[in-house]
Design brief:
Blueprint: H1 2-60
Length: 75
């Protein structure tokens, strides 16, 4: 009977350890995802600035721009 109780306790202990390790893994994955999202936001802002600069240069040079043909991807 004592062996059964110890085996059950060890099984519960192993399960708790596994869950803690899995939780830590998920936390690390979350941190990586947040970092990648922040980098993507920075790159998107840079791209917006570049588009603005190109539009400005074209406008200054007298090129007529029509926004009617611009299609943005839905996010």
């Amino acid at each position: 009977m004592l062996q059964l109780a110890r085996a059950s306790r060890n099984a519960f202990s192993a399960q708790a350890k596994y869950r803690r390790l899995r939780l830590r893994e998920i936390e690390v994955m979350y941190m990586i995802t947040v970092d990648e999202c922040e980098k993507a936001d920075v790159l998107l802002k840079r791209a917006d600035l570049q588009v603005g600069e190109v539009r400005h240069i074209l406008t200054v040079n007298g090129t007529r721009l029509s926004d009617n043909n611009i299609r943005f991807l839905p996010w």
